[in-house]
Amino acid sequence: MALLDVEDLSVTFARRGQRTVHAVDGVSFSVDAGEVVGLVGESGCGKSVTSLAIMGLLPKQPGLRVGGKAVFDGTDLLQLDDRSRRDIRGRDVAMIFQDPLSSLNPVIPIGLQVTEVLTRHRGMKGAAAEKEAAELLDRVGIPDPKRRLKEYPHQLSGGMRQRALIAMAVACQPRLLIADEPTTALDVTIQAQILELLKELVRDSGTALVMITHDLGVVAGMCDTVNVLYGGRVVETARRRPLFREPRHPYTVGLLASVPRLDAGRGERLNPIPGSVRDLLPWADGCAFAPRCARRVDECVGEPPALVLAHDGRSYRCVNPAPLPGTLPPPAAAGAAPAAEAPAGTAKAAEATAGPVPAPREEEKP
Ligand SMILES: Nc1ncnc2c1ncn2[C@@H]1O[C@H](COP(=O)(O)OP(=O)(O)OP(=O)(O)O)[C@@H](O)[C@H]1O
Ligand code: SF4
Ligand SMILES: [Mg+2]
After folding, report:
1. What is the pLDDT of residue 327?
2. Ligand nearest to the CA of 322
3. What does the alpha-carbon distance between residue 229 and residue 366 come to, in Å, rounded to a whole number?
4. CA 76/CA 54 separation, integer angstroms
C-alpha cells in the first residue's frame, strides 16, 4: 500500500444563483515513500484544490462538498477532526503553498518561524537551531541569512518568502510533502537550487513528494510518475519517460507540443492547444477536452470516456488516443479529424517534442 492513496476525490463549490463548480471530479493517485509524483495541467484544472482538500485546508464556505478518500499511512485524512488533522500536519505532512504570504505569520520574524519548526520537529534549541535556520536559508538561496532571520515576512520579496517557506518545509523532514508550484515565482538559478534541495529531501529522508506544477521542465527533472489533469479529472497517468516519449492523451500531447524547443528551426511555429481551459464540456456530456481536441470523434461526446488501463501500467481517459509509434491507429480513429488538423495529436508531434521514438510496440487493449 502506498504512503498516500487518494481515491475518487471530488470537490464541488455550489453557490446560490451560480453554476456549481466541479473543481475536482473523481481524482485518484498514489505516492510511495521516496517517490515524486507530479500533478500537471493548465490553470484552473484543480491542482491546488486537490492539494488543499488533502490537507483539510479548503476555505470552510457554504456549498463546499468534499468526497472520496485521502488515506495517509492507513488514516483517511478527510475523516479527521480539526485537532487530529493539525497534529498530523505538524508531524508528518507538510505543504508549500502557491501563495507564500498567506502561510507565513506576518507578526513573527522569519527566524523564529524557522527555529520553531526545528524545535518542534527535530528537538533543536537555542544557538544550534539558529545556526541550522541560517544554513537552511542559505541553502534555499537567501543572501545574508543571519540578517534575514531577524526580518518579518513583509520585508522579504515574494521569491524570498517562497524560499523561506520551502526552508521551513524542508526543516520538518515530513513523510509527505505537497509542493504547490514551489518554484514558479523564482528565477531559474534559484529554481534549480530549490529543486535539488527537494530531491535531496526525497532521497535522504524518504519523503513522498507531490509536485504540483504547470512547468513540464520541472516535471522532466523531478517526477517519477506524472498525473495530467484536465477539467478536474486525471486524464493520463504514466511514469515520466513513457509520458514524455509516447504521450497517449491528446491533451498531454498538446501540452508537450506547446513547449518551446531550443533546437526548433528558425521561424518554426509553436503548437499551442487551440482554445482555452474555459472551453470545457461538462464531463457528464462527454470528454471535457472535446471542444479543443483535434482527434475528436463521434464517440467522444455523449458520455464521459472511461479510464483505459494499459498493460505497461499507464492509464488514460480517451477513446481515440494518440497511436503508439509504429502501430495502426485504433479503430475509433476511423472518423477522426484529418492528420493535417491534428498536429498535436500525432506520434510525430510527440517525437518532435520528446526526442527519438522507441521501437514499435503492440497497441494495448482497454
Ligand atoms: N473557494 C473557491 N470557491 C469557488 N471556486 C473555487 C474556489 N477555489 C477554487 N475554485 C475553482 O476551482 C477550480 C480549480 O481551481 P484551482 O485553484 O485548483 O486551479 P489550479 O489548477 O491550481 O490553477 P493554477 O495553475 O492557476 O494555480 C477553478 O475553476 C477555480 O475557480
Ligand atoms: S479523442 Fe475524444 S476522448 Fe480523446 S481527448 Fe479527444 S475528445 Fe477526448
Ligand atoms: Mg493552483
Report:
1. 65
2. 2
3. 20
4. 9
